[in-house]
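Journal club prep, shared notes

We agreed each person brings one worked example of a sequence with its structure written out as tokens. Mine is Amidohydrolase. I'm keeping it raw so we can talk through how to read the token line rather than staring at a rendered picture. Sequence first:
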Amino acid sequence: MYQFLHNNAEISWEEVETTKFIKNELEKLSIPYQLFDDQTGIVGVWGKENNPVIGLRADMDALWQQVKGEWKANHSCGHDAHTTILLFTLRCLKELGQEPKGRIKCLFQPAEETGAGAISFINKGLLDDVDYLLGLHVRPIQEMRFGECSPAIYHGAAASFKGKLYGMQSHAARPHLGINVIDSLTAINMAIRSIPLNPIIPASAKMTFAQAGGKNFNIIPDYAEFGIDVRAQTNEAMEQLISRLESQVKLAGEANGARVELELLSDMPAARPNKSMEEIVAKSIKEILGEKGLVKPPVTPGGEDFHYYAKVKEQLQTTMIGLGTDLQPGLHHPDMYFQLESLLHGIKIMALSTVKLMEEKQ
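Then the structure, token by token:
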């Protein structure tokens, strides 16, 4: 199943065949499901009792990146693994003869990479009846090794901006008659890099995309686009950083007379630790992997839209399991690989954590 999903990757909001595949697998398990007319993604519901409702979430989209010289959809963040683990968690519980003491709601969420997939599910009311929510993410070798697992991942807040610059064309021999947007790009880049950051709280802001000019090198360009990636370990630090960034970009970009437009594309909140959920998952990790297999939650600048669920639904209790896989060279690397045996660890831990949640929260 993992190899099939890996070889048939689809980018955010285009996970049409992936949704169909999951639908077929849920039908094999006799789990009712809900599809959507306006977007990809699928939600299965197993069980008839109202309380508690345990949510299990897996993301399903791939990245668009260059792999060995070819631009393609590529699962370099492990979402194919997450989907596989959730489907086999359900199959595992079914084959063990488990009957949910409450309901299990499995959310196969699209578009995590855009930061908008979780919000789409929230806006559809799919989390309104959920009491507890479990997620899982494969972790790089720099954080934990194969055979290790953490009961949470402390992701930082992340945001991305798209900017546009408008200047004035002129002949390159008479630059004083134009407004060169490349000068604006340079000034913006330097301004971003000069924002003072609190050394106590990890944070960063950097330009990650820039495009200006055309095919003729003797014209002062009048239009440019740029992208900015922003990270901070806490939501409070992110709010301060974004406020400074927006003012700095405008001041620097317009210093030469150009006009700046800046649009917030995505904004993912930082993780909110939930000790009671972590304790339940920690018990499952120790039963599956032993005492040495349980490690502390990693603190990472990576963003994850899973944390929208807890931010918007304040009563919802959540945690995201960190699965050690010996993943190399790193997440989002086009040639990322990991030990596939770790899929079984993820299935066992997710299944046992679900059972424990149902029993302890009944």
